[in-house]
Write a structure and sequence with these properties.
heterodimer, A: 238 residues, alpha/beta, Rossmann fold, 5-stranded antiparallel sheet, 5-stranded parallel sheet, 10 strands, globular, B: alpha+beta, two-stranded antiparallel ribbon
């Protein structure tokens, strides 16, 4: 990988992006959006506003039709799909709303899973198992549970904390959290946000959290409304 | 966490379904290899019906026909071989030994075969095994008979029992004036000998002394005591088993018999004729192999269907893998690895089932059907079959793998419900 260094300091940068899903029914137009290294950004958007599409573009699952998406200076646009998969593995940690874990693996195995696809992240962990356990301890997850229990036996709150650990392992520069608290009750939600901020601060990663719940926006460096940065493309305007 | 380990854990988590699928594959593999074993075993048993005999001589007909009536006691001879021709030909220098056999009479549903005592030494089966007596011994008296294991079994005969030979086959005319005594019962061989009543060649002559054409002569019967005094040289025999001094002379003798000017005769090499006959019977064996191969295919298709039907509930899992950096190709190869692992496990379990079954059933198969199945290690052919099963599993898993590829490409890391 040869990083293009022109915007090297930004964890994420989108410029003049235009994208339409195959079939042309829905797409997105993003003029300019970037997240600096270590910055925490709350992206607000109601459902159906194109959040999933934007995240797909950032993660390199979908490739832009025009414009440029770059992660820590590495331009994704124009790269082969396999290359984009590799960059996603190396440079992002993803936390979903729920069902974050592969049910038949232990939490520990789930946490180590991204390292299988990201050798550079693995290199950053001297001892991946120890690194994973250090993370889970700070997330108040007991070791025996992390090492032995099948992920499917954990509570939703525990699963979300394991998901934080998986996103953080090997210090990827950008953490993407997609409605990570919507399955949690309000106490657990506060706990989760606290732990997430704590971890992001420790590793120095940038955080992009997407949610429709503005109540979570406090403590973020920046709050952005999706409608301010992106324009949805609908129907046959594509 | 390697892909193989991931596949393994994923399979373990669906233990019951996976177990059933593996078991289905195992059964099909065991069936296929079992049919293979039976097939080769049957072929070997068949080819081993008669061994150590170089030539079989009979009246001129087809080689399969001669083999059928002389060895398998199926059908009838079209003609006899005159005793002069037999003496003349077996007197040739190439001939080491000769055993005449005379067929034509029956006892209940079993054939009666007249022969000499040399038959017990010369008749060999299954690679040189000799006939052995379960009870009693060879004929000592003119009216002694030796019965095969099936004959004794079916009719409940023991040494010393009297039996009456019927004239011809399926006949109501019996040689009841001259009953035989059983002098010996043979061990089970799995050959047609089991279903044969053996008597001396002279006895066949003796019971026909008072017969002319198809019926009994009028007048008093010749008493048994008198028959024992008579010179009972047969006028004709049905066939003869011949051994040569040197194998090199087989063809020379065969030609001499086939070109015998006095009488139209035929000599066959039993091994060759058996092979010829097997080719006729062998059509069934191909069909059997075909059917068992279809069973394997069915089991593999069942596995593909099982993977395919499980894909929807695994969308979440695939999305997670995509999110942590797996490409659609990795997802597809995960599914293929799972399929191949199931097929390999099924194949190994199938072999275990096969050998377990063989060890259990072998003595019974040998005793009941004379089917001798050697338990050998895996033949290269077996290993080839296993490799093909795993390769075929990989091939059929391409269907669910391709579907998973498309699904994970479309879903990406977004989980849709």
């Amino acid at each position: 990988m040869t990083p293009v260094t022109s915007h090297g300091t930004d964890a994420l940068r989108l410029k003049s992006v235009r994208f339409t899903w195959p079939g042309g029914r829905f797409g997105l137009d993003v003029n300019e959006f970037s997240i600096a290294a270590g910055e925490t950004v709350f992206l607000y958007g109601p459902s159906g506003s194109g959040k999933s599409t934007l995240l797909s573009l950032i993660a390199g699952i979908a490739s832009v039709d025009a414009g440029e998406v770059s992660l820590q200076g590495q331009v994704l646009s124009g790269l082969r799909a396999a290359m984009r998969d590799r960059i996603r593995a190396e440079r992002t940690g993803v936390i979903f709303q729920m069902f974050n874990l592969v049910p038949y693996l232990t939490p520990l195995e789930n946490i180590l899973l991204p390292l299988r696809f990201a050798p550079e992240r693995r290199k950053r962990c001297e001892d991946p198992q120890a690194a994973a356990l250090t993370l889970t301890r700070t997330l108040s997850l007991p070791d025996p549970m992390v090492q032995q229990a099948p992920a499917s036996t954990l509570s939703v709150g525990q699963q979300q904390r394991v998901a934080i650990a998986r996103a953080m392992i090997g210090h990827p520069p950008l953490i993407i959290a997609d409605e990570p608290t919507s399955a949690l009750d309000s106490d657990a939600r506060a706990d989760f946000m606290h732990l997430l901020f704590d971890q992001v601060a420790r590793s120095g990663a940038a955080l992009l959290m997407v949610s429709h719940d503005r109540g979570l926006a406090e403590n973020f460096d920046r709050v952005v409304s999706l409608s301010d940065i992106a324009r949805p493309i609908r129907g046959d305007t594509a | 966490m390697t892909l193989t380990r991931l596949a393994f854990k994923s399979l373990l988590s669906r233990g019951f379904t996976v177990g059933l699928t593996v078991f289905a594959i195992a059964l099909s593999v065991a069936l296929f290899l079992g049919v293979e074993k039976l097939r080769t075993g049957a072929r070997a048993s068949f080819a081993d019906t008669i061994s150590s005999t170089d030539l079989i001589m009979g009246a001129r007909s087809g080689s399969v026909q001669l083999l059928l009536y002389s060895v398998f006691r199926i059908g009838n001879a079209t003609n006899n071989v005159s005793w002069e021709s037999y003496e003349d030909l077996t007197g040739r220098p190439e001939v080491d030994w000769a055993v005449p056999i005379s067929l034509g009479d029956s006892h209940r549903q079993f054939r009666v075969m007249g022969t000499t005592r040399a038959y017990f030494d010369r008749y060999k089966y299954r690679g040189g095994r000799s006939l052995e007596f379960a009870a009693g011994g060879e004929f000592a008296d003119l009216f002694d008979a030796v019965v095969g294991a099936d004959v004794a079994d079916t009719l409940g005969y023991a040494v010393g029992d009297p039996i009456v030979v019927a004239h011809g086959l399926a006949s109501f005319t019996e040689h009841d004036d001259l009953p035989f005594r059983i002098s010996g019962v043979l061990e089970k061989t799995g050959t047609p000998v089991d279903r044969t009543v053996l008597v001396g060649l002279g006895a066949i002559e003796a019971i026909h002394v008072d017969w002319q054409g198809g019926g009994r002569k009028s007048g008093p019967a010749t008493p048994a005591e008198m028959l024992r005094e008579m010179d009972l040289e047969p006028a004709a025999i049905t066939a003869a088993m011949i051994g040569v001094k040197s194998r090199l002379q087989v063809f020379k003798l065969q030609r001499a018999i086939n070109e015998y000017p006095e009488e139209p005769l035929l000599a066959i090499l039993p091994g060759l004729a058996l092979q010829e006959l097997w080719e006729i019977v062998g059509v069934a064996e191909t069909a059997l192999t075909g059917v068992s191969a279809m069973v394997v295919v069915t089991a593999l298709l069942g596995m593909a269907a099982m993977i395919l039907s499980g894909l929807n509930e695994r969308r979440r899992e695939m999305a997670i893998l995509r999110a942590v950096g797996a490409g659609p190709m990795t997802i597809a190869s995960l599914l293929m690895t799972e399929a191949m692992a199931m097929a390999a496990a099924g194949a190994v379990l199938g072999i275990a089932l096969l050998f377990g079954g063989l060890l259990l059933l072998r003595p019974w198969l040998d005793a009941a059907y004379g089917l001798y199945l050697p338990v050998t290690g895996l033949t290269p052919r077996d290993l080839g079959v296993l490799a093909i099963v795993v390769a075929a599993a990989a091939a059929v898993s391409l269907v669910p793998a391709a579907r998973a590829y498309r699904m994970s490409l479309a879903d990406g890391m977004m989980i849709k419900f």
